[in-house]
Amino acid sequence: xxxxxxxxxxxxALLMIPVTFEAQARDETIERLRLGxxxxxxxxxxxxxxxxxxxxALAIWVGAKLGQPVPAALPRLVFRPNNQVAALRxxxxxxxxxxxxxxxxxxxxxxxxERVIYIEESWTGATAxxxxxxxxxxxxxxxxxxxxxxxxxxxxEAKAFELQEKWLRLFGESLEEDFQIDPFTLLVRTSCGM
Length: 194
Ligand SMILES: [Zn+2]
Prior knowledge:
By secondary structure, this protein is mainly alpha-helical. It has helices at 2-15, 21-27, 50-66, 82-88, 128-145, 153-170, 175-179, 183-190; strands spanning 32-34, 40-42, 76-80, 108-111, 116-120.
């Protein structure tokens, strides 16, 4: 989408068109998505019940992408102040942190022992990036529910980031754009012994 927007800007600049094209460019981005489960995602809307129907719908999407059945029990979603979530990150079994561009930080952690996704309070679910964080942590929940051997903790991240990226692509966004995770950073974060 970025490329398209840049092209529009370039063409408009060339023709000296007044600035109405930003809205047009925005229309090209998917902002409404009906998942296979029938649940509709509307970008820009806060999620009133993120730990309920939203999480279920995202889990069905993740299951379809992984080719695995949705675990009988989904994780609980627990909101915590930012510093608390960061502290939890140091706990054993807790997986990583993600940071969003242009925001203080959106941190989430999947705690495998408690089967809880801890998420920072400023999360609203109104952006594709916010929702992608849940997609990522749900992959870790699937990894616990359908045990697979991983060479190291970093190797667990490969699938989680892969599906997070797939999710973001649905909305014309990417890990690099939203989380500053470029291909090299991704390689480092998903490779053992790096
Ligand atoms: Zn992860």
